[in-house]
Amino acid sequence: MPAKEYHPDFVGTVTKYVFIESPDITPQHLAIKAYEISSGVMIKETCFGLQVTGKPQEVDEIIKELRKTDPAHIFVKDRGFPPGDTRRCRANLGGARPGYYGHEFEMGLIRFVSKGLLNDENGEKASDAELKDIEEKKSEKLPVEELLKIVNSEEN
Amino acid sequence: MSKVFIYPSTSLILSDMVERFGHEPLGVAIAIRERIQTPGLDSPPLQMTPEDPKKGLKYAAVEVPSGVRGRMALFGPLIEEAEAAIIINDADLAFGCMGCARTNELVKFSVRQRKDIPVLDIRYPSNEDEGLAFVQKIKEFLSGLPEKNDPGKKKGGKK
After folding, report:
1. Which chain A residues are within 8 Å of B29, Cβ to Cβ?
2. Is the distance from CB of A10 to CB of A52 less than 8 angstroms?
3. CB–CB contact B16 A106 (8 Å)
4. What is the pLDDT of residues B39-78, one digit of tens each?
5. Which of B3, B12, B1 is nearest to B114 (CA)?
6. A103-113 tens-digit pLDDT
7. Which DSSP category does A138 fall into?
């Protein structure tokens, strides 16, 4: 395949996902709010929230304002591709775009994190047992001595 | 403000938590964006060039599949740049073909080889109580890292 020159779009910009999982605010509310405060930044409303593309400082300011709407229920992350990029957009791929499995999985857990953020804001503290529960359970792994015992018992 | 490497590197929750508590998350989107916005010869689909697997040689041997080396060309520099790291173990979304799976193992191994940075090992919460513990753990970990414009503050030790 002959190599062709690549001219990137939106050079010097950043794209951020804004996910909203709130009982009070919808992506539409958020999009209207974002349009109100933006100046020349590209905003795309999606089923889960928004994609905001623009110069880093402008995007940061918008995100900061949007977060104030419902801090514990708005989650933000970076995106490498700009919206509508032909290599990623499902309009060009002819099917669902790859990469949403991760979003879907984490959106299922986000209510626990939101609750955690709200409780943390109210000064609640987790017990030592709860803290231990979310740490890596190293003790659950089979100790080498135990494995050797099993191997030896099979050989005998 | 410290640069915090996150694993899974596409994690929304980790990315948000790190940014929310005043630090810079180092996820794969940063590396992808750099390639997407660099003009040059088109090498679809990700503007990965033949140079990238060569860069990956620094992190994986030549007999390792080029997919792993290509992925490590993205992750390797981020791990080197990191001043701290948060790893979520047993993440259901971090799976894939052998390329992805082996790269994931190599990424975690490489992070743990960095003895000079604090690393937080954690699991996803499965209920509201664990959600509080999850947030608290991350907040405590991140508050031990140097703040923005405060390079004098001592780093937290290895967790």
Report:
1. 77-80
2. no
3. no
4. 877 666 667 777 788 888 999 998 888 888 888 999 999 9
5. B3
6. 889 999 999 99
7. G
Residue numbers of A between 55 and 94 with CB closer than 8 Å to B: 75-82, 85, 87
Query: Quick check: B121 contacting A, CB < 8 Å?
Result: yes
CA B125 to centroid of chain Cα atoms: 19
Beta strands in chain A (DSSP E): 5-6, 14-20, 42-45, 49-54, 74-79
Helix axis angle, B66-81 to B28-36, nearest 10°: 110
- Tokens representing A61 are 């300011």
Tokens of A140: 């659950």
- The two tokens of residue A83 are 């919206």
* Amino acid residing at A140: E
Residues of B in contact with A76 (CB under 8 A): 15-16, 19
Strands B24-26 and B3-7: parallel
Best to test chain B binding among A15, A55, A78, A107 (most B CBs inside 10 Å): A78
Which tens digit of pLDDT belongs to each residue from B23-34? Answer: 999 999 999 998
How many angstroms separate the first and last alpha carbons of chain B? 19
Q: CA torsion angle for B136, B139, B140, B146 (degrees, to 10)?
A: 180
Residue A117 in contact with partner chain B when CB distance is under 8 A: yes
Interface membership of B97 toward A (CB under 8 Å): no
Tell me the C-alpha to C-alpha distance, in Å, between residue A131 and each of A94, A127, B140.
45, 6, 12
Residues in chain A within 8 Å Cβ distance of B41? 3-6
Between CA B68 and CA B4 the distance in angstroms is: 22
Its pTM stands at: 0.86
Binary contact (A102, B28; C-beta < 8 A) = no
CA-nearest of A33, A48, A53 to A102 is A48
CA distance B137 to chain A (A): 7
Partner-chain residue, chosen from A11, A82, A134, that has the shortest CB–CB distance to B133: A134
- Checking ipTM against 0.90, whether it exceeds it is no
